[in-house]
């Protein structure tokens, strides 16, 4: 890692490494993720040997990440959202010890964060059965064969079919769409993404295109680009709070522009290479909605511009924030003339 103190390692096992590797692709701050074997007794195991379950290895993913951009806790959140941590016999259609889930910590700090994260997921009420994912000290890894690396990008159709047929994709969608989660005090944390049919029923054609198909609305011809009323902007799909009018400014771009998020934890950034450009995409954390893009031409001192599509947002004025469950943010406007 070129002795760069910002670059750190994380290692997770979550069943088929194709799927777990895919979960960390294009995440801002993730420099590299690759499939590997770890935890076993045989040196240089082959895929066939690991699949036979005789070497003691796990199928795992090694991640190299920039700790200034993404935290270890955020990586753990992504991990939990892509596995069944209650399954002691494997993951979905893949059975055997090689497909068990585990967090391999690289230092005591990671161990403490992992233990706390596991405790939080156990207490969240998301899973009805006990969490069996182990937390183990990281050991030697063996990089998997070239064929298995970046499988989701090299064979996208085959990967998609496998992820669905194995039961992983349906499980994740069904689980995180549950409405009965416990111990969440904030209403948007009860949300997980509905099925496509439900989204199409509840969103306008433009809202669906923007949030689900990464579309872009015309500049100056959208609802909020020149809105000056005080309040907050939430995800049109999930309702999670994203931006505040306090941080909104007229960028001249024709789209709503903000200098910073209201809740950084509700914002995810990814590398966007579409349209023969390299940009930073902005998505919502709970709804996974495409919101817009992040640019570095904003006002000083921070210099950031979150350029967001109006169709991805719902505006909640100050006078309605309490009744709609966003009262915790009213203090931001207490000294202002509403």
Q: What is the 3D shape? A: elongated
CA-atom Rg in angstroms: 21 Å
Number of domains: 2
Helix content: 10-25%
**Named CATH architecture of the largest domain:** 2-Layer Sandwich
What's the assembly state of these chains?
A: single chain
Q: What strand order characterises the main sheet? A: 7-6-1-3-2-8
- Mean of all residue-level pLDDT scores: 89
CATH superfamily annotation of the largest domain: Peptide methionine sulphoxide reductase MsrA
Strand content: 15-25%
What ranges have pLDDT less than 50 throughout 5 or more consecutive residues? 178-185
Following the backbone from N to C, one meets helices and strands in this order, namely EHEHEHEEEHEEHHHHHEEEEEEEEEH
Number of strands: 17
Query: For this structure, what is the CATH class of the largest domain?
Result: Alpha Beta
Give a quick account of the main beta sheet: strands, pairing sense, barrel closure. 6 strands, mixed
Number of helices: 10
> Structural class, from secondary structure content?
alpha+beta
Distance between the termini: 52 Å
């Amino acid at each position: 890692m070129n002795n760069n103190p910002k670059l750190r390692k994380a290692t997770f096992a979550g069943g088929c490494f194709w799927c777990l590797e895919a979960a960390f692709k294009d995440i801002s701050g993730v420099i590299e993720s690759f499939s590997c074997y770890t935890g076993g007794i045989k040196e240089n195991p082959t895929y066939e040997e690991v699949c036979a379950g005789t070497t003691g290895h796990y199928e795992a993913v090694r991640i190299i990440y920039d700790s200034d951009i993404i935290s270890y806790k955020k990586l753990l959140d992504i991990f939990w959202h892509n596995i069944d941590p209650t399954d002691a016999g494997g993951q979905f259609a893949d059975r055997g010890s090689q497909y068990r889930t585990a967090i391999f910590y690289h230092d005591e700090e990671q161990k403490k964060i992992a233990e706390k994260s596991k405790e939080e997921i156990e207490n969240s009420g998301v899973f009805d059965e006990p969490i069996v994912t182990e937390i183990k000290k990281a050991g030697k890894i063996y990089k998997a064969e070239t064929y298995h690396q970046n499988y989701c990008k090299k064979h996208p159709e085959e990967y998609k079919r496998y992820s669905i047929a194995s039961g992983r994709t349906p499980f994740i969608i069904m689980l995180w769409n549950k409405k009965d989660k416990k111990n969440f005090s904030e209403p948007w944390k009860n949300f997980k993404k509905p099925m496509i049919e439900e989204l199409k029923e509840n969103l306008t054609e433009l809202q669906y295109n923007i949030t689900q198909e990464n579309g872009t609305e015309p500049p100056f011809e959208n609802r909020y680009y020149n809105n000056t009323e005080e309040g907050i902007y939430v995800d049109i799909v999930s309702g999670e709070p994203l931006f505040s009018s306090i941080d909104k400014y007229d960028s001249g771009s024709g789209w709503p522009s903000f200098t910073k998020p209201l809740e950084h934890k509700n914002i995810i950034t990814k590398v966007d290479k579409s349209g023969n450009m390299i940009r930073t995409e902005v998505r919502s954390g709970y709804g996974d909605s495409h919101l817009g893009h992040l640019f570095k031409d904003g006002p000083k001192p921070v210099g950031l511009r979150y350029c967001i599509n109006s169709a991805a947002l719902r505006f909640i004025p100050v006078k309605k924030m309490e009744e709609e469950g966003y009262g915790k943010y009213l203090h931001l406007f207490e000294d202002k003339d509403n």
